[in-house]
Amino acid sequence: MRVVVTGGAGxxxxxxxxxxxxxxxxxxxxxxxxxxxxxxxAHLRHEEGFELLELDVSEPFTIxxxxxxxxxxxxxxSPVDYLRMPIETLKVGSLGTLHALDLAEAKGAxxxxxxxxxxxxxxxxxPQPESYxxxxxPVGPRGVYDEAKRFAEATTLAYRQSRxxxxxxxxxxxxxxxxxxxxxxxxxxxxxxxxxxxxxxxxSGDGSQTRSICYVDDLVxxxxxxxxxxxxxxxxxxxxxxxxxxxxxxxxxxLTTSSSPITFIERPVDDPTVRRPDTTLAxxxxxxxxxxxIEDALKWTIGWFRDVxxxxxxxxxxxxxxxxxAAEKH
Length: 330
Ligand code: NAD
Ligand code: UDP
Hints:
The protein is an alpha/beta fold. The chain is built from ten helices and 13 strands. The protein has two domains: 2-175 and 213-237, Rossmann fold; 178-211 and 241-271 and 293-328, UDP-galactose 4-epimerase, domain 1 (Alpha-Beta Complex). The protein has helices spanning 11-22, 79-84, 86-107, 143-163, 187-197, 216-228, 245-255, 280-286, 294-307, 317-329; strands spanning 2-6, 26-31, 50-54, 69-72, 110-116, 167-172, 175-176, 201-204, 210-212, 214-215, 235-237, 242-244, 262-265. This is Epimerase.
């Protein structure tokens, strides 16, 4: 197969590229490096059949040669990133998705859209099944991301139904692992960075809000199953392991053997209170369930953050803290 991965130099995209190359597929990673980095795929550059193209998928683009699948993963994903790039986020979710679908249509390829649990907003149904329509504030700070993804889902389904493009939608719940940027502002990289530095670990609100956290290897396995299938979705992909942010922070402090104190900061506007995937569909349609124990996954991720130099950061730690602070005051 020849697979185009948009956002291929990002956290999830780079793991997808790596697994596809290991499977023997040809891979074209496309990225504009707004939140990703060449370093994430540097180890693949000498692999036969791997290509990295610098382009912005919000502008029209074509790929030479045959394409069998498009994994559309390009989009800022961390609240800190989409707060500093609101228009770019709206554009990549809308125009970028249209362009990726045009490519899939032109090549007769299957397209898998990386949607998000954020389409459920601050959910009033718990856990969240795919049949739940969500509770999103379109004009809150998170609206630029949530609504872009909701538009992307509607567009993807329209191309399937009116143009016969083979599409699939996955709704990804919080996923973590090596190659997340230590300053991307998401809870796990933030807590690990702070704990390793001996800095206070910043928990928002009283830390009772929950997320359900999935290791990247489990996620990649599910995405490749979705690529190989022909289900339309949407299908939730995530680990139902639900944990409060305070418990998560304390767990990470313990695993890093850090003496960092926990400090409480203001809760961001519209921050979802609970989140847990109902994964019944993923299990019945894809035969998939997450396997990696979260404690092992946290240890590996902490090990990676310890070892890797942080020289390729689009944002400094100070800039990340400043944006998080501004969001809290919003
Ligand atoms: P990431 O920021 O590490 O990766 C996104 C990649 O897309 C980056 O390499 C970035 O440079 C690239 N990109 C952004 N806009 C682009 C554009 N206009 N043209 C080309 N490339 C562009 O984030 P991630 O966590 O790897 O997320 C990847 C995808 O998965 C996103 O679509 C995100 O919405 C989705 N997702 C991720 C999670 C998660 O927990 N990691 C959860 C839900 C959904
Ligand atoms: N969070 C936190 N401290 C931080 C960063 C995030 O307590 O330094 C909280 C955030 O307010 C949210 C949860 O952790 O309640 C998950 O945030 P993240 O950005 O990782 O994911 P998302 O909110 O997009 O699910």
